[in-house]
Amino acid sequence: MKLVTYLHHGQQRVGVLTAKETAVMPLPYTDMNTLIETSSVAEVLSAAKATEGLGASTPLSEVTLCAPIPRPRQDVLCLGINYKDHATEAAQYNADAFTKERPIPIYFSKRVNEAVGPEGAIDSHPGLVQRLDYEAELAVILGKTACNVRPEDAAEYIFGYTVLNDVSARLLQTTHKQWYFGKSLDTFTPIGPCIVTADEIAFPPALAIRSYVNGELRQNSNTSMLITGIADILAELTSGMTLLPGTIIATGTPAGVGMGFDPPKFLHPGDVVTCEIEGIGSLRNPVQ
């Protein structure tokens, strides 16, 4: 299933895309957080089949897609420097800020006041932000409370997957010597276009991941290239921390971000960033 949050006649709803992805069928949940917290993938599938039987669908051309989870309950958990090729380009840009001394995961969190959906604008924050950058990432969404998860059981805790653009203000990120502020400004978390339920994607995911700026291919890799895989991420984080249903984990970005070019190719107002992952879809966002 591909689950979406959408606006129709001014009302925000939760729905499932039809098989041809040309229309959306409403689901009986108040929002995506509630859906994830109260229902398993199997239960949502049952609700979707019941809705399909009623023939109640709306063409996608008549709705506006929002971020699948417009307001995450908690900060997004993120992996830094989790593709080998990105580790190399990041160290070349600023060795002081990005060199890993030991081969262990880098975790940080990202404040999300409201996630930006497909076609939503990224605010360039003139006067505050210099060196605006993009990062295409596979995001994992948990479906149940996770504590002391064994790597071999990790797949059981995953509700689904989506595309996330970890927009970053590089100068703020490196100046503050930590990444929270430079990653958490308003509109810095586009997510979408949908959540693909975990039953649709083999675990661990091996999906093509790409980004484009103004149509120019920038990132081109595969989620199988993660340094720390999803199973190990879940096992480590939950060894001392309980993660709740609806938790979003951004697994890191491959090489090809703006700071990785010589000279760097940062974003400017008028640019359009597209992040896409095989089997999930594309997230297209203009910069303002």
Write a structural description:
Helices cover 18% and strands 30% of the residues. With 288 residues, it is of the alpha+beta class. It has 2 domains: 64 residues; 211 residues, Fumarylacetoacetate hydrolase, domain 2. The longest helix has 14 residues. The chain is globular. The two termini are 33 Å apart. The mean pLDDT is 93.
Radius of gyration: 18 Å
Overall, the morphology is globular
> What is the ordering of alpha helices and beta strands?
EEEHHEEEHHEEEEEHHEEEHEEE
Q: Name the average pLDDT.
A: 93
Strand content: 25-35%
- Quickly count the helices: 7
Class from helix and strand fractions = alpha+beta
Number of domains: 2
Helix content: 10-25%
Taking pLDDT < 50 over at least 5 consecutive residues as the criterion, the unreliable ranges are: none
The largest pleated sheet is described as: 11 strands, mixed
Question: How many β-strand runs?
Answer: 17
C-alpha end-to-end distance: 33 Å
CATH 4th-level superfamily of the largest domain: Fumarylacetoacetase-like, C-terminal domain
List keywords for this structure.
288 residues; alpha+beta; Fumarylacetoacetate hydrolase, domain 2; 2 domains; 11-stranded mixed β-sheet; 4-stranded antiparallel β-sheet; 7 helices; globular
